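It is worth pausing here to work through a concrete case rather than discussing structure prediction in the abstract. The textbook approach is simple: state the sequence, then state the predicted structure, then interpret. We follow exactly that order.
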Amino acid sequence: MTKIINLKEFAYFLRVHRNDIITNWLDRNEVKNIIHKHSMPIIEKNMNIFYGFCDCFISIYQWNFTISECQARMDFLNLLNKYNVTTSELFTLILRLKSAIEDSIYKDGSLSYNIQTELETITINISNELTDTYNNLEDKNNSQEIEQSNLLAEYKKAVDISNIVSKTNPKGIITYVNDKFCKISGYKKEELIGKAHNIIRHPSMDREVFKELWDTVKSKKAWHGVVTNMAKDGSSYVVDSTVIPILDVDGDIIEFIAVRHDITDFEKTKEQLQNINKVMRNKVDELYSVTSSLEEKATKDELTGLYNRAKFEEIFSYEINKAKHYNHNLSIILFDIDHFKNINDTYGHQAGDVTLKELSNLITKNIKTSDIFSRWGGEEFIILLPDTSIEGAMQFAQKLRKIVKENKFSDIEYMTASFGVAQFEEYEDKLTLFEKVDKALYIAKNNGRDRVEQSLFSCVH
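Step two, the predicted structure:
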């Protein structure tokens, strides 16, 4: 190799042999010991920082500027500081880099006295400037650590003052309790330290809750839940609890910290509100039941349980309007018991009432769910048949007449009924339709009873 006679040639040589120089540098025992001592991982990111620092070193020779003008130096110093490398160890790393450079030159050629002297001078200047910067960086970090430590202490103090705090070892033995813990539990510190945490367990608490708690924290996760505890005097208190596992640098659990908030009053208030809501729901249900009962009484006939006349009138109006609007058939049947007065006179009014109820049940069993069956008054009943023609209504009325005639009633055994049938026409209204069916029933009774008659005329006012 041609003898290096100036810095330009020297810088060019360093760039050509850069990778060999860095390999030589990192293979030196002093460098390996420093890296191993501080557990610095040899990963690509860290190696890039070492390479960058070496390039920075070379640039100083090539361009004759100071190390402070090179950004890579800060990445290098921050990396060392991250792993707590000392200032003397930093100085060792710089000197070993210089040695790696010298070895490379001795291996491939000769080094002039002037260049070697310059190398010594520049390395010393770099070392001095870097160590000054590094010391300032350490001082700043130490200051930040102290500030963070003080801030953490204040946080701990705030948590300790405002919360119920305890610590246990990994086996659940209490190692620390604060004043709030003692106050709410009624125990003194000396009565709690060294005891298992179940000293405050309330017998009402489900064991599954504590199993879930321990399964969670032993898996190195925080647990949160509501727990009922028992004080020394036997009283209970409720806390909102968070239990946090604390790990060492190896990731092993060294203790558990439990932070709790007293929510006893809140839980009591919540329970009271739940009881009030329960009472209110019961009252609402009672009112609904009473209202439903009153509505039913207002719409049902007291003796037979059928729709009363008022309710039937309401439904009648609705069905008339629907038949008009959709041009649907609508028929009506009006019937009453033949010689009902004789039944009352012969068997008594109580027997008459029983007969009315039995007749109502008999007809109800034989009509469609869409038919509207109502007691019109006394022994008179009415059936509204939506979507039914006059022919269908006549057949149905004949069927009901036979059912009534063949049925055996409790007190009077047998009886008959007369039926009138009519169909709604589009030009009629509720009143004219009823007059038609009423006249049909009148004809049935005049023609000998126990028969069905159809209205053959319209009643238009």
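Step three, interpretation. Strands lie at 164-168, 174-177, 223-230, 236-247, 253-262, 330-337, 372-377, 380-386, 417-423, 452-454. The chain has 16 helices and ten strands.
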